[in-house]
Amino acid sequence: MRVPWLLWLVCLQTARSIRPLGQMRFIITQGKTFPSAEASLVITLPNDCKCKMRCLVSVDCVAWSSLPSSNDTVECRLTELGPQEGTLIDQNDAVYGFKPSRLKSRITVFEGEDGLIYFIPLEDLRYEGAKKYCASIPGFRLAIFKTKQQFQIGVDVGQNGGRGAFVDLRRTKTGEVVWGDGTILPTSHYPFVAQISKVHFTKFQIWTESLDIIVNESLQRKLLCQGNDGYNWW
Fold this sequence. Notes:
The protein is α+β, with helices and mostly antiparallel strands. The chain has two domains: 5-101, Hepatocyte Growth Factor (3-Layer(bba) Sandwich); 110-227, Roll (Mannose-Binding Protein A, Chain A). The protein has four helices and 14 strands. The two termini are 21 Å apart.
């Protein structure tokens, strides 16, 4: 079985640091591809890494996919469509990668000090739709903050065009405040969430000095997606 993380070892992908997201970064996953009809180029190459590098050096290439072919080669597909506008299909023996820097976003796609990738899609959605949207992009989810550093990232986003964006934090029917992965928000983090004592509000958003409650939960709003380009995403 071909394992995506080997591509980073073989291709010497740049290590994480605190910086704007570079064009050399890819998020890579196994078991996904796109239709050949959406490809701008289909070519036979020796391996997955050569396919990735072909996309890297092409200005117009946003995503690539490789599928096993004959004589230990791969069919390499390049496309100008990213995961937001292209069609992703399941195929067990495929490898798919895309440039997260080319995601369509209201703010510049960036890497936080936590090493994760953040962007705000152009769409306005309700909470459940926001969760599905972020999760539809390989490696991404609606943002979850576990550390003081990450809460500060939220504040910085709020002060630079992200105010009012959903994060994946909600209050349950039993009154617990829970992140989307099931982790209960510890009381030590309550100071990072304004008006958290108002128990009849169940959803939360990015604001300019902290997270905050959402008063009108029926409205569509912005969303902050959080991505991980590591092999074990979450």
